[in-house]
Design goal:
single chain; alpha/beta; Rossmann fold; 2 domains; 7-stranded mixed beta sheet; two-stranded antiparallel ribbon; 12 helices; 9 strands; about 15% strand
Length: about 300
């Protein structure tokens, strides 16, 4: 199979010249090779176009003016090398380009950290938390638990400026990636990176909002996971047999780190019913996203206190 792909790529380099040519070839090549799309794009066409435009340093939202442009030999080589990585290695496009984008924020990413794809930035930037927050300017302390590459911490820092943000992760390698992004956004004074296994090293502070997008893939899904996900740190994916191990620990202790009117916002998998069965009468508020509800819940400090002190 690898020899066949290399032969196709070699032939494409010699025969094709325009962006249109490479879009058509890329779509055909990708469709032949059982790829999965879930790290920034959702379909083969968008994935191919993204890799081409990024490789050519062209705007990612403007394809039409360039379709018939003739490519340099070096440009063809770069595009085809990236196609090869995507098809043979099943490497997600974001790791190929070291670039990921979420809600119009761009982030550096490599295989030390999971590719960001959280729903939390969508919820935040749509002002969906405002019913629970009286004044944005009164929010001055935020925790991003399981920060990964730092994307939620950075977007929250921008949204709640000039709030102070602590971004914590169990992986020192992920924190190295997060530091690159914090530096790129020049937020060193607003965001503090902490190495912590969930609550272990979190300072004894009280936060207005705690965000968390923890590992939540269950054992069954891990055993059947697509090849693309195998390039990501498995510690950032696996949430125990049920997928809820970390979510449960977050719920159990969050109230100890929240201000009186504080909020806990957590993203998880599609096991809403299982979580609610574990915490009967805890009034989870499930927030809507473009992909539906049931993936991100909100709880207040008062709700958590009432539940655990009953």
């Amino acid at each position: 199979m690898t020899t066949k792909i290399e032969k196709q790529i070699k032939e494409a380099h010699s025969k094709f010249n325009s962006i249109n040519d490479f879009i058509r070839f890329g779509v055909s090549l990708f469709n032949q090779n059982d790829l999965f799309y879930g790290h920034g794009t959702t379909n083969v066409y968008d994935e191919v176009v993204y890799l081409i435009l990024f490789s050519l340093n062209l705007p990612l939202d403007k394809l039409e003016p360039y379709l018939n442009a003739t490519l340099l030999e070096s440009e063809k080589t770069l595009i085809l090398d990236r196609f090869k990585q995507r098809v043979i290695d099943k490497l997600p496009a974001a790791y190929i380009t070291n670039h990921s984008q979420i809600q119009n924020y761009a982030f550096y990413v490599d295989q030390r950290a999971i590719i960001p794809r959280s729903f939390i930035p969508e919820i935040l930037l749509n002002d969906d938390l405002l019913p629970w927050i009286n004044e944005l300017e009164n929010v001055d302390a935020i925790l991003d638990l399981c920060t990964g590459n730092g994307s939620i911490a950075i977007i929250a820092s921008d949204y709640f400026a000039p709030a102070q943000v602590i971004a914590a992760d169990i992986s020192s390698e992920a924190l190295e990636v997060a530091r690159i992004n914090v530096n790129n956004y020049q937020l060193q004074q607003q965001i503090q990176l902490i190495h912590s296994d969930l609550w272990t090293n979190i300072p004894a502070l009280k936060f207005d909002v705690i965000f968390s997008n923890p590992p939540y893939v269950d054992k069954h899904r891990m055993d059947n996971i697509k090849n693309e996900y195998l390039h990501e740190p498995q510690i950032a994916l696996y949430g125990g047999d049920s997928g809820l191990d970390l979510v449960i620990e977050i719920i159990n202790k969050a109230r100890l780190f929240l201000k009186n009117n504080g909020l806990l916002v957590v993203e998880m998998g599609d096991n809403q019913n299982e979580l609610e069965a574990l915490f009967p009468n805890l009034p989870f508020m499930w927030l809507n996203t473009a992909s539906g509800d049931g993936f991100v819940f909100l709880l207040t400090k008062n709700q958590l206190d009432t539940y655990f002190n009953a």
